[in-house]
Amino acid sequence: MTRTARYKPPAFVQVDVDGLWAVRACYDRPVGDAFERDPVWEEGVPAFQRLFAQLGLAASFFVVGRDLEVAAKREAARALADAGHEIANHSWSHTIGITRLPARELFEEVARTHAAICNAGLPTPVGFRAPGYDVDERVHAALRRLGYRYDASMLPTRVAPLLRLADAWLARRWRPGRRQFGCLAHARAPRVPYFPQREAIHRRDPAPRTSGLLELPVATIGPWRLPLTASLVFALGADRVIERLRHDLYRRRPILFLLHGIDLVDCRQPIVFGGRRSPIAGFDRSADEKQRALESVLRFLLEHHDVVRADQWVARYIPPPEGSR
Ligand SMILES: [Zn+2]
C-alpha cells in the first residue's frame, strides 16, 4: 500500500441513546419504571461500546439530556467518551415535534442538554439530532447560537408519509402535530453533507462560508431512499443492505449509519409492544442475533469507508463559521 491509497468516503456510525422510557413514550406505551431501570443504558450502551472496541471504530452517541440526571447513566456516558466516542445532543426530553414548540421552549430543548453534557465533565458537544428527525430553520438557529458545527436531523427519504402512517398505527392514534420523519420537502434534500440555506434548510446554501453549520443527512438507500438504520438491516437482512451499499460505492458518498441504543438490547421478552410478534423488525430478537447482523454491515463500512467521528471530520475539513475564533 502506498500513501496515495484510494480515497475512501467517510462513514459516520451514530447511536441515538433513546432510553426505553423514550421509546415507550414514542409509541404511547406506559413508561413504567423504565427511566430509572433502563436496559438501553444498562445493556445496549455497554454492548455497543464492546462491539465498537472489538471493531476498532469511533462512533457518536446522541444522548437525551434528562437521562444525564441519573448518576449511572452519566457514568456510562463518561465511559463512552473515555473510550474515544463523541457525545452529542439529542434534545432534553425527546419530545417528538420540537418544531411546534414556542421559541423559548425549543431553545431550551437544545440548551439544557448542552449544559447537562458540559456539567457532566464531558467535552462540549458540537452535533445535534432532533427526536423524530423533526428539524426546521428555528432548530438550526438555536444550534448556531450555541456554536454547534453540525446537525444530523435531516432524513431525505421518500417514504416519510408511510413511516408516519406506520407510526400512527403503532401508537393507535393519528397525531398530525407530531411531524415525525420530517416534512415532504425534506425528501429532496441532498444526500451528502451540505451547508443548508437559512430560510430553506433542505436546500444547499450558495454562499456556504457564511453558514457555519453543516447538515449531515442520515444515509438512505435504493430508489425509495429507505433510511439506513438498524431497523432496515433487521427487516431486509444484512446481506441485502450490503449488496445495495456495494452497488452505491461508485458514487463515493459519505454514509451516516443510524443505530439506536435498543438495537443491542435483548428483546425476546417484549419490552415495548405486548404480544409475541413485534410489529417493528428487531423488537422481538435476541441481542446476539441483532449484533451479528449489525456487525456485518459495520465490517463492510470499515472495509470501504473511512469510519470517523462526525465532530472530528467536521473540525478537520470544514472551516469554522465567519466571525468565530
Ligand atoms: Zn431518538
Task: Provide an overview of this structure.
By secondary structure, the protein is an alpha/beta fold. The protein has one domain (10-317): Glycoside hydrolase/deacetylase (TIM Barrel, Alpha-Beta Barrel). 36% of the residues lie in helices and 10% in strands. It contains ten helices and ten strands. The strands form three sheets. Strands 1, 2, 3, 9 and 10 form a five-stranded parallel beta sheet that branches. Helix 8 (238-247) runs parallel beside helix 9 (287-304). The relative contact order is 0.17. Residues 16, 18, 90, 94, 131 line the site of zinc ion.
Radius of gyration: 19 Å
**Residues in β-strands, percent:** 5-15%
Secondary-structure element pattern, one letter each? EHHEHEHEHEHEEEHHEHEH
N-to-C span: 39 Å
Task: Enumerate the spans where pLDDT stays under 50 for 5 or more consecutive residues.
Answer: none
Described by strand count, sense and barrel closure, the largest sheet is: 5 strands, parallel
CATH class: Alpha Beta
Per DSSP E runs of 2 or more residues, the count of β-strands stands at 10
Name a few traits of the molecule.
single chain, 325 residues, alpha/beta, TIM Barrel, 5-stranded parallel sheet, 3-stranded parallel sheet, 10% strand, binds zinc ion
